[in-house]
């Protein structure tokens, strides 16, 4: 949202007040344009809309719209331009990033504003990354750095309540997932647990063999998951959290999934590499193969085998109904509704944009 009273002269006035040759009216304007379309998000309960606006002051700030009262409140004030916002799972905090300019190698300053209007908290700076990748709980989230050369590196856990930042993995990594129990992280490391950047230079350890590490978030113990005796390697990590198994990895040599327990033990699954998902009530898990949908109990007993062989593409999304009675399968440009108790399948959408990066979620689950 934008106030037209002094636009675009506000950027000229802001640059003068900053008195920094690197923070020009043009750079501030570009930062405003870059962020203003991204800074909008509904609260988890749907009662508030957080958004970026430039109605007061010389730069964009964080505002909140309350649906019940139809009122707007300003929650932040500063010289920078907002770039993105993200709600905490309980809806009490709104994390937001701000910058003075955009472009290659841009970094973000991260702040947390409380829904109750208390003063925003500064959390971290120079984050080379454009959003909160994963919330551990209502007040802790993960962040990391990244740049050409080392890629993603420096994974950290940030506590909004205390301001503490805990190092999880200093080195480079390709991906990480968090256990549903919130006690551990599985990470595919590309370099040792030390910063790959020294004095602005990228230093790569060619003796290090990339692979998965299991990291205990309480003890900070890091355990490498070794390859099997026959030289198989693992990747494509996912959270699982049922039947005493925290994660799933893909055996890249055999092209099949493997379970990982909290103590680092691997157990093979007699399935090809296929989409796997756990029900919201954690009583079932299912695998979507090229021929069927197999529903298993927590102890891996097969409880339902539903024939399914779509011709429109790969399964790119599995969305459970909140009561665990069925799923929506996103396959190419189509959505299928699968009723698990009776095994019925019906197509409910045929004309999706064929976008393999799209995600879907439930809204108004209690209605």
The average pLDDT score comes to: 86
Count of helices?
A: 2
Distance between the termini: 31 Å
Specify the structural class: mainly beta
The second-level CATH architecture of the domain at 1-132 is Beta Barrel
Note the main sheet.
7 strands, antiparallel
> Compute the gyration radius: what is it?
23 Å
Strand order of the largest sheet: 9-10-11-12-13-16-17
| Strand content bin | over 45%
CATH class of the domain at 1-132: Mainly Beta
Contiguous runs where pLDDT drops below 50 for at least 5 residues: none
Percent of residues in helices comes to under 10%
Gross morphology is globular
CATH topology of the domain at 1-132: Lipocalin
Oligomer: single chain
Could you tell me the number of beta strands?
29
Structure description:
The protein is mainly beta and 367 residues long. The protein has a domain at 1-132: Beta Barrel (Lipocalin). The chain has two helices and 29 strands. The chain has helices at residues 9-18, 25-36, and strands at 40-42, 48-53, 61-66, 71-74, 81-87, 93-99, 108-114, 121-127, 134-135, 140-147, 151-159, 165-178, 184-189, 197-198, 201-202, 211-216, 222-224, 234-242, 245-251, 256-260, 266-268, 276-278, 284-288, 292-297, 302-307, 315-320, 326-331, 334-339, 344-349. The strands form seven sheets. The chain has a seven-stranded antiparallel sheet, with no helix packed on it. A four-stranded antiparallel sheet has the order 1-2-3-4, with no helix packed on it. Strands 5-6-7-8 form a four-stranded antiparallel sheet. A hairpin with a 2-residue loop joins strand 27 and strand 28. The longest helix is centred in the N-terminal third of the chain and has 12 residues, at 25-36. The chain is globular. It starts with 8 loop residues before the first helix and ends in an 18-residue tail after the last strand. 27% of the residues are buried.
């Amino acid at each position: 949202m934008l106030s037209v009273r002094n636009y675009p002269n506000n950027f000229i006035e802001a640059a003068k007040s900053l008195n920094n040759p690197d923070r020009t009216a043009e750079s501030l304007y570009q930062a405003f344009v870059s962020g203003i379309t991204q800074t909008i998000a509904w609260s988890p309960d749907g009662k508030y809309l957080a958004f970026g606006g430039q109605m007061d002051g010389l730069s964009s700030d964080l505002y909140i719209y309350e649906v019940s009262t139809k009122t707007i409140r300003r929650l932040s004030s500063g010289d920078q331009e907002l770039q993105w916002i993200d709600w905490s799972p309980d809806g009490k905090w709104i994390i937001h990033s701000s910058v003075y300019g955009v472009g290659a190698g841009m970094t973000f300053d991260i702040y947390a504003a409380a829904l109750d209007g208390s003063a925003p908290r500064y959390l971290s700076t120079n984050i080379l990354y454009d959003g909160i990748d994963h919330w551990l709980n209502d007040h802790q989230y993960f962040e990391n750095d990244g740049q050409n050369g080392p890629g993603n590196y420096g994974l950290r856990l940030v506590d909004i309540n205390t301001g503490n930042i805990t190092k999880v993995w200093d080195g480079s990594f390709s991906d990480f997932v968090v256990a549903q129990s919130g006690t551990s992280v599985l990470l595919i490391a590309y370099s040792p647990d030390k910063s790959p950047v020294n004095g602005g230079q990228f230093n790569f350890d060619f003796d290090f063999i990339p692979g998965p590490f299991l990291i205990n978030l309480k003890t900070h113990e890091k355990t490498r998951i070794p390859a099997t005796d026959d030289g198989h390697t693992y990747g494509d990590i996912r959270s699982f959290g049922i039947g005493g198994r925290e994660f799933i990895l893909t055996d890249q040599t055999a092209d099949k999934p493997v379970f990982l327990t909290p103590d680092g033990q691997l157990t093979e699954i007699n399935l090809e590499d296929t989409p796997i998902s756990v029900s919201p009530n954690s009583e079932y898990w299912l695998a979507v193969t090229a021929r069927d949908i197999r529903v298993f109990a927590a102890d891996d007993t097969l409880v339902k085998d539903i024939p399914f062989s779509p011709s429109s593409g790969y399964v790119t999304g599995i969305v459970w109904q909140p009561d665990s009675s069925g799923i929506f399968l996103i396959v190419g440009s189509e959505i299928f509704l699968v009723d698990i108790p009776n095994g019925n399948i019906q197509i409910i959408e045929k004309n999706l944009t064929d976008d393999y990066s799209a995600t879907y979620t439930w809204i108004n689950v209690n209605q």
